Every structure is written in structure tokens, then in C-alpha cells.
Amino acid sequence: MLKKQIQSFFVKTIYLITLLPLKEVNLIEKFIMQLVTKNLIIINVLLFFATFVFQRYGVNLIHYLGLHFFLADKFNFAQLFTYLFMHGSFSHVFFNMFAVWMFGNLLERTWGAKRFLLYYMVCGLGAGIVQEIVQFASYEMVLSKYSSVNIGSEIIPVSEYLNYMNTVGASGAVYGILLAFGMLYPDRQLYIFPLPVPIKAKYFVIGYAVIELSLGIVNSRTDNVAHFAHLGGMIFGFILVKYWKKKNF
What we know:
Blueprint: H1 2-17, H2 27-31, H3 35-55, H4 61-65, E1 67-68, H5 79-82, H6 90-111, H7 113-141, E2 148-150, E3 155-157, H8 158-161, E4 166-167, H9 171-184, E5 189-190, E6 199-200, H10 201-218, H11 227-246
Antiparallel strand pairs: 1-4, 2-3, 5-6
Helix pairs in contact: 1-6, 3-6, 6-7, 6-9, 7-9, 7-11, 9-10, 9-11, 10-11
């Protein structure tokens, strides 16, 4: 099991390292993090390690800051923002922050700090809202017809099970960043492992959207990824970029 996790980690690392924009700014500028980008990465990493520290004292930060289903007892509106800074594993936070650094840096240089931060938060909020809608649809179609749920180790009331529906991660905002990159730099060439030739950013973004939609529809029982939340981040990002272009911001 550990060997497979290590192999998966290195495969993803190779994949992301080769997904580099070509003909971008000079190499030195690429590696200098902008203010908001840098602070987003710092906050996410600090909170990730804080979850382990708090666990030693019997406090589960994800239960408090993760996004619960809005019908659950543990839900509060602040979670629509705080869930963005919670992550469930090292690979989760690493690859999200890697994408923030790689693509967020360029967007922040293009838009400036305030607009980039607004865009990031709007995409994250949109992803959370879409996730809540999808969970509500699932609840109405399935869970609402039952009074209890078998979770394997025990049978619990549905009202208690709703608290298990908890979403974490900046992936929705990250997908919004990828969408904006594709819209602002549609013809920018990207190397994507293992493809032998680069592809344009617009095709990369479209491909990612199609994959997420397909995986969301298939909805494998073993898949704990919030695919529709990712699409939600892209949708809200698309609307915001179009609005800014219309207003010539």
C-alpha cells in the first residue's frame, strides 16, 4: 500500500513539473511568488500542519472548518470560506499549492493582488455552493427516504450521517485559476506528461472540464473527490472573467 502511494506521488509530481507554461516570463520572475500567492500557500500549509497539532489535543480542525452539508448540525456559513484552507492529505495540499504557485503567480501579475484574491475566493465560494447543491440533490433522491444509515461499523441516524458529508480543499479555487489561465492565455503552450508535444491552454482547460464532468456523472462509490465542486469553481470563474471583460476592468 505504501509503495503504491509513493509511486502515485512521484507520478503526479512528474506530471505537474512537466505541465509548465512555455514562453512565459523570464525564469527568475517565474520563481518569485507574488504577495497573495505566497500568503495563500503559507496559510494553507500552516493550517494543514496545524490539523495534526490540534489532533494531539483532541480537536479536529476539519470538523470545524471543513464545509458540512447545509442541513447538518455542524454546518455554519463561515465554512463556505474556511473549507478552502483545509486539506485531507499531504498530496492534496501539495498539488493544490503547486498549481496556485504555477498559475496563480501569473494571474496575480496580470490582475494585481486585490483582483486575484477576489477571484480566488469567488471561485472557492462558487465551488462550495455547487457542492452543497449536488449534496442536496443526493439527499433528496436517496437519504431523505431513510431514517438511518449503515456506515459499516454501526448504524446511525441520517441526521448524524449528514455531518459526515464534509468537503475540504482549495481545488475549486484552483480549477478556477486554471480556467482563467486558459481564458487569458488561450494559445499559451503547455507540456503535459506523457504527451510528446505541447498543447494550447484552452484545450487543456476544456479537457480538464470534460474529465471532471465525466467523473462527476459516473460518481464511483470509491471516489471521494468533489468533481462538481471543481466544475463550480470553473463556472463561477468563467462568469467573473466574462463580467470583467465586459466592463473592461
